[in-house]
Design brief:
The chain is an alpha+beta fold and about 375 residues long. About 30% of the residues lie in helices and about 25% in strands. The structure holds flavin-adenine dinucleotide (FAD).
């Protein structure tokens, strides 16, 4: 996106990448169909130390602008829930579109060039790769985050920023889900594979989506979203039965009769059976007689089901994280052009910057919008 914009303005553009094929993450994104944007994108869909920074670029390149590109290239797409847009056929179409657009604008692609160092040159910047050396008056760092090292992620972008004395906001893997503590791994053993609609709350941020138990923790869209907002030591709360209010759930139990086994079976109407059984085993007495179970005890059980709290041991990690939270401090950059204030001619765009989107096409929209903002300024 950046190369296209810069090339259109008449610049001579070189794109350097150490990968053998460009856009490695796009091809695996969205299950191979690339969730390339979201119908509704606002700065509230991003986590950043400066909540306002992304507004400028996002307002100048909107989802509709990218959709128009997609349509102009004849790429069929569809909308899934929460405004998420995906290709009908393949993520490769987005890659082809981007490459074609960049090439048509005159940009040249240099693959298998691992950037090892960037230095200030007499006029602009010198980029040393393991193959060659390039000099340019202006340099855009679009090297992404640390996530998915097997698809070529390196820390070079942060190293370049630090070498020009730019601050980095602490980084962490995000959109990766949670790992259980040892205690929860025992409590929740045997749940792997269970999926259900749930609400997760982290740091006051609430998401309702699908939740998946893995052998090691929580995954699924709701856990991925929640992991973006989580910091070590934070408690995570889960509502396993969001379809009912607390009063409705209380009434549901109050109108039941039966012993523990019977209640376990009836509860399968509310949550997956294995979960119902374990919750009953963990939190209901062996000699349960639901018809005579005190209201206070029912309330306590409902609370476990609708406000279950746990302390994750951590998030899953960079190997599976869709993004890296944190990055180049936005205070160091112009929100209009993405240029570093301390290093004129040096720009940072995309995921290397401390702007991290929710799950749902937001990270690509940020990549497109920040790329366009820089490209227009080169
Ligand atoms: C599995 C997965 C699925 C995802 N799905 C979605 C999705 O559906 N929708 C969405 O919005 N976001 C998704 N994301 C997030 C999205 O892919 C990223 O936020 C986005 O790609 C960031 O773009 P970028 O250009 O900043 O960095 P990247 O796309 O990561 O590109 C960085 C480039 O820099 C190159 N590079 C790195 N180090 C060096 C070096 N030393 N020398 C030379 N080149 C180097 C890499 O090879 C790479 O090509 C997904 C991420 C993953 C991992």
């Amino acid at each position: 996106m950046c190369a296209k914009a810069a090339g259109k303005r008449g610049g001579k553009v070189a794109i350097l990448d150490h990968a053998a094929k460009p856009c490695g993450k796009i091809i695996i994104s969205g299950g191979g169909r690339c969730n390339f944007t979201n119908r509704e994108v606002t700065a509230e869909n991003f986590v950043s130390a400066n909540a306002h920074f992304a507004k400028s670029a996002l307002s100048r390149f909107k989802p509709q602008d990218f959709i128009e590109m997609v349509e102009a290239h004849g790429i069929a797409y569809h909308e899934r829930k929460h405004g998420q847009l995906f290709c009908d056929a393949s993520a490769q179409q987005i890659i082809d579109m981007l490459l074609k657009s960049a090439r048509e604008a005159g940009a040249e692609l240099f693959l298998k060039n691992k950037i090892v160092k960037v230095e200030k040159a007499a006029e602009g910047y010198l980029v040393a790769t393991d193959q060659d050396a390039f000099t340019a008056k202006k340099l855009v760092v679009a090297t992404g985050g640390l996530s998915f090292p097997k698809f070529g992620a390196t820390n070079i972008g942060y190293t370049i920023a630090e070498s020009f004395k730019l601050r980095i906001i602490a980084r962490a893997p995000a959109l990766d889900g949670f790992v259980f503590s040892d205690e929860d791994r025992v409590r929740l053993e045997g749940f792997s594979g269970i999926a259900l609609d749930a609400v997760m709350t982290t740091n006051g941020v609430v998401f309702r989506e699908n939740l998946l138990f893995t052998h090691a923790g929580f995954s699924g869209p709701v856990a991925l979203q929640a992991s973006l907002h989580w910091n070590p030591g934070d408690e995570v709360r889960i509502n396993f039965i969001p379809a009912l209010t607390r009063e409705e759930l209380m009434e549901w139990f109050a109108s039941r009769k039966g012993n523990k086994l019977e209640i376990k079976n009836q509860m399968a109407a509310l949550v997956p059976k294995r979960l119902a059984e374990r919750f009953c085993d963990l939190y209901l007495p062996e000699t349960l007689d639901m018809g005579n179970y005190p209201k206070k005890e029912i309330a306590a059980f409902c609370e476990k089901l609708q406000d279950w709290r746990f302390l994750p041991a951590g998030t899953v990690g960079y190997g599976k994280a869709e993004v890296t939270r944190g990055g180049v401090d936005t205070d160091e950059l112009s929100s209009k052009t993405m240029e570093a204030k301390k290093a004129p001619g040096l720009y940072f765009i995309g995921e290397v910057v401390d702007v991290t989107g929710w799950l749902g096409g937001f990270n690509y929209q940020w990549a497109w919008a920040s790329g366009k903002a820089a490209g227009d300024a080169l």
